[in-house]
Design goal:
Elements lengths: L6 H12 L5 H8 L3 H13 L19 E8 L5 H12 L4 E6 L6 E7 L2 H14 L4 E6 L15
Antiparallel strand pairs: 1-3, 1-4, 2-3
Helix pairs in contact: 1-2, 2-3
Keywords: DNA-binding, Transcription, Transcription regulation
Protein name: ArsR family transcriptional regulator
InterPro entries: ArsR-like_HTH, AsnC-type_HTH_dom, Dimeric_a/b-barrel, Tscrpt_reg_AsnC-like, Tscrpt_reg_AsnC/Lrp_C, Tscrpt_reg_HTH_AsnC-type_CS, WH-like_DNA-bd_sf, WH_DNA-bd_sf
């Protein structure tokens, strides 16, 4: 289902990205509309798949997850069975917050959030015991400078 996004929809989406916990009344006021038309637009955007799962963002450090590693993976295996096994291994590990297949010299990059370096090592050992990889490079993030889930909706 294709949906046309107009300026009011963009404003609603921007408000939801900023804080999805706002009341319908707060969103309507922010976009200069009333509750019923805003609700109808939100419903249509959900039905069209523009708005996906709603969740909360937790403070990882406050919960003791102090280390973020970016894991670069090179593999010499590109068969369908290997890929299925690799994807299954990633899906089963809650430490993996993101996984991307790349073009270029690196095949995959993972964003892994763990409590500390020892926890990363346990993750790494478990992963390589299940899936054959050619080369793994782990980069420890020293400081998170920017992190957002918000899309640039203007225009």
């Amino acid at each position: 289902m294709t949906v046309r996004i107009d300026e009011t929809d963009r404003k609603i989406l921007a408000e939801l990205q900023r804080d999805a916990g706002q009341s319908l009344e707060e969103i309507a006021t922010a976009v200069g509309s009333s509750k019923t038309p805003v609700w109808n637009r939100i419903r249509k955007l959900r039905e069209a798949g523009v708005i996906g799962q709603q969740t909360v963002i937790l403070d990882a450090e406050a919960l003791g997850f102090e280390a973020t590693f970016f894991v670069l993976i090179r593999t010499s295996a590109h068969e369908a069975d290997w890929q299925r096994q690799f994807l299954k291994a990633l899906q089963e590990r809650p430490e993996v917050q993101e996984a991307h297949r790349l073009a270029g010299d690196i095949d995959y990059i993972l964003k892994v959030r763990v409590r500390n370096a020892r926890a990363y090592d346990a993750f790494y050992q478990a992963l390589i015991s299940e899936v054959r990889v050619h080369n793994v490079t782990a980069l420890l993030s020293m400081e998170e400078i920017k992190s957002t889930t918000m899309l640039p909706l203007d225009g």
